[in-house]
Amino acid sequence: MIQFSEEHQMVRKMIQDFARKEVAPKAIEIDENETFPHETFKKMAELNLMGLIFEEKYGGAGMDYISYIIILEELARVCASTALSYSAHVSLAANPIATYGTEAQKEKYLKPLAAGEKIGSFCLSEPNAGSDAAHIQTTAAKDGDYFILNGSKAWITNAEVADIFIVAAVTDKEKGAHGISNFIVERGTPGFEIGKKEKKCGMRGSPTSVLHFNECKIPAENLLGKLNKGYPQFLETLDGGRVGIAAQSLGIAKEAFKRSMIYAQERKAFGRAIGDFQAIQFKLADMATKIYAAENMIYHAAWLKQNGKPYKKEAGMAKLFASEAATEIANQAIQIHGGYGYIREFEVERFWRDAKLLEIGEGTSEIQRLVIYRQWKDDISKI
What we know:
Elements: H1 6-33, H2 38-46, H3 65-78, H4 80-100, H5 103-115, E1 120-123, E2 139-143, E3 146-157, E4 164-170, E5 180-186, E6 192-197, E7 208-219, E8 223-224, H6 230-266, E9 268-269, E10 272-273, H7 278-306, H8 312-337, H9 348-358, H10 365-377
Parallel strand pairs: 1-4
Antiparallel strand pairs: 2-3, 3-7, 4-5, 5-8, 6-7, 9-10
Helix pairs in contact: 1-3, 3-4, 3-6, 4-5, 4-6, 6-7, 6-8, 6-9, 7-8, 8-9, 8-10
Pfam family, one: Acyl-CoA_dh_N
Domain Acyl-CoA dehydrogenase/oxidase C-terminal: 228-375
Enzyme class: oxidoreductase
């Protein structure tokens, strides 16, 4: 059973208050209008949430990873779009710079990201390389003191609003996955274009766009980490991101469950509350059980990461289970609400639309199953 410290409980209370007052009132609007919540992110920056897990010397709050997971969970309960863009900024864009960046890169890029002065984005997927990330086609060719980027990226979270992009590109075609490097690219760099914004089923307040690089000239000093070591870098980045996706799934699942419990006591049918019927009780019991299991898996994986222990398979299992559970729970929430569940005013339909992406992003459920199998195959002694 998870044991949260007093500090973690305070973090949860703080973010719950913030989420209900500042985030929840905008959730329906940003979904309907497909708009990024700029004002919310400014207020999050004032609370030092944008640099939550980074060292204070870089403008961060110096808090632990479990606190970050708590914040993602609570944000997702009220607005999954906000949680998704926040996680892409912290975990996928700023964290690689904090982990692999030079001191100069941290001063130039991590500080404004941690302060919330700039928004970050992570650029890996391509039109022909989603799950098969080892076969990306964007290239970066060395040219004196520069690298020249050419190619396209797809399904990039925050692209429309981001200032700093972490971009994966092939630097040695002969080496396959061992010939990929990561770069820091600034918005406005000549040859770098933000393409069309995608029209999505869910997570509509978190913008997703296509990117194009055409002879885009990047200073060699913007190479992130070592040359040709980008593949293991972004695999490690995605492991942490998967725990974050799981936390967002948990937030959606909890809110869908809570609303279903309340509705089941209020809604009358055949002269009784629908919660008095065994068919509804069984649905709610299954929801509660999946939430309990997901919560323990997620925070165990977070604890492992926080304490420097291997957590790849735990991250994969938490992401797989929690994301699929969230979609199922949101689906059952719609069913319990009946016709009202299909109406946007009651929001549970939005929970389903948002949850579905979490089975796809940062490694599909199918990829997670491969990761989990391979991890256990290599460690049969622990079975």
